[in-house]
Design goal:
alpha/beta, TIM Barrel, 2 domains, 8-stranded mixed barrel, 22 helices, about 50% helix, elongated
Length: about 475
């Protein structure tokens, strides 16, 4: 039955062809076991009667359960301006590398589940000003698997190069077909393939270079060779682990940067908080201690920069006020204590003397905070959801301030339940925040367990995740 399913997936009229990577058509028993494991978290519906696809066009629309239930995880990709330019999107699944090295059938199944989930999530909502970098197998180029998402903003990152070269004619035709449809193409650089990959580079818009496995002379050689073949190609540095590695890459002709360096916790040696942030922390603490309006206004008047930012924010078009607010007292009344608290917390990310990657870290924190809040919308009160949102924001404040979390929390007076979630990953808020953080990682088994613990369906997690990403993007525009 399993073999018959694979034949149906590949197409009954398709000409039998050996697996380019392993010289066989059907998977081994080990790979069949891998398929069954994948199919548990990502069941594929019958191709004979596919259900209608409902694309969500805005975040307030009701979500339709997609046919394929699998977690889609994200990793931010930064541009030259140190802000998020796009996301690498993949199925949250531990054995991704093994899937990529397995039979054609499993590779195509993986790509079908991923692209269908992206389509059913309404990924296009996110791609007006962003890119989605989607890893796919070369074996899928000969199929219509990749045609489901609309092409705007989609970059198919194709691997591996050995598969491309083994099926040169079919692979090149597949790339050209996708380009004609409007998709953009990414390839991965590999040593010793310069001349063989020339025809593929001509079709590529992006070249991904793993800086973790190469030194600078090798990287420079790869860049120069690619530019000779494709002068307009853009380079993406991947596997950047530390800020030091990022600084090196920033000096090379890379246009995009990917890796865990964005939220890495380096040199957390409890430095002194700068004066601007110290004043914001003071106001936050007064707010938490129920300071009166007059006291808060007095603090703001002592800080001209903060007063200016508040009035500019309250009178921004997004606030939708009919008449302009001209006094600090009015601004605080219109905004309200909770929204004022949230606004001040966001300023902690962007008020430092050396912003660095603070904007990118802030967007990640906003997604965490909003996603945790959405997960709890049916379980917690409005006040509790506000506290949960603050916990999500503070979960990355230690990265921005370059100090340990326990030291950060000594600077500001937060509710014990928030401290418990941040320091011990325990308490009432921890399950929601932990699930929001897990959506940044590629471990679907953990995500599924966390989702079940708070009564969330997998497809619902995907929809809320995209809503949170879109909300954070719009907030930063």
């Amino acid at each position: 039955m399993l073999d018959r399913f694979f034949r149906m997936l590949m197409g009954n009229k398709a000409r039998p062809r050996k697996d380019a990577g392993h010289g066989r058509l059907f998977p081994s028993r080990r790979e069949q076991a891998a398929f069954r494991k994948l199919n548990v978290v990502a069941p594929l519906v019958s191709e004979a009667n596919p259900p209608p696809v409902k694309v969500v066009t805005h975040s307030s629309s009701p979500l339709a359960a997609p046919p394929d239930k699998a977690i889609v995880c994200r990793e931010a990709i930064l541009g030259k301006d140190k802000r998020v330019a796009g996301y690498s999107l993949s199925l949250g699944y531990k054995i991704n590398p093994r899937i990529r090295a397995s039979s054609i059938s499993i590779q195509r199944l993986y790509d079908k589940v991923l692209t269908r989930n992206l389509q059913n999530m309404g990924i296009q909502r996110l791609l007006v000003h962003r890119l989605a970098f989607v890893d796919v197998s070369a074996s899928s180029l000969e199929t219509s698997v990749l045609d489901e998402p609309q092409p705007q903003g989609i970059v198919y990152v194709v691997g591996t190069n050995t598969q491309l070269l083994a099926n040169h004619e079919f692979s090149l035709a597949g790339l050209m077909r996708l380009k004609t449809l409007g998709y953009r193409i990414g390839l991965r650089a590999a040593a010793g393939e310069k001349s063989a990959m020339a025809s593929f580079l001509e079709q590529a818009d992006f070249l991904f270079i793993d800086i973790g496995n190469s030194d600078i002379p090798v990287i420079s050689d790869q860049i120069e060779a690619a530019l000779r073949q494709a002068p307009a190609i853009k380079f993406v540095a991947t596997n950047i682990q530390t800020l030091e590695e990022y600084s090196v890459c920033a000096g090379l002709p890379f246009a995009y940067y990917q890796g865990p360096f964005i939220t890495s916790r380096e040199a957390l040696d409890a430095p002194k908080v700068d004066a601007g942030r110290a004043k914001i922390l003071d106001v936050l603490n007064r707010l938490r201690n129920e300071a009166e309006l007059a006291e808060l206004t007095g603090l703001l008047r002592q800080n001209l920069a903060l007063s200016y930012k508040l009035l500019r924010y309250i009178n921004s078009p997004g606030m939708g006020l009919i008449h302009p607010v001209v006094t600090l007292e009015q601004a605080l009344i219109v905004l309200g204590r909770q929204k004022f608290y949230r606004w001040l917390t966001l300023l902690l990310f962007t008020s430092g003397k050396t912003p660095g990657l603070d904007w990118a870290v802030m967007e990640n924190a906003l997604i965490r905070a909003r996603l945790a809040e959405l997960f709890a919308q049916n379980d917690l009160s409005a006040d509790e959801r506000d506290e949960l949102f603050v916990a999500g924001l503070f979960s990355l404040l230690d990265v921005v301030l370059s100090m340990p979390m326990d030291v950060v929390l000594k600077q500001v007076n937060l509710p014990p339940v928030v401290n418990e979630a941040l320091l011990s990953q325990a308490g009432k808020y921890a399950p929601y925040l932990t699930l929001a953080i897990a959506c940044e990682q590629s471990d679907s088994a953990n995500i599924v367990a966390l989702a079940q613990a708070i009564g969330q369906d997998i497809w619902r997690v995907n929809g809320l995740h995209l809503d949170a990403m879109l909300w954070a993007q719009q907030l930063g525009e």
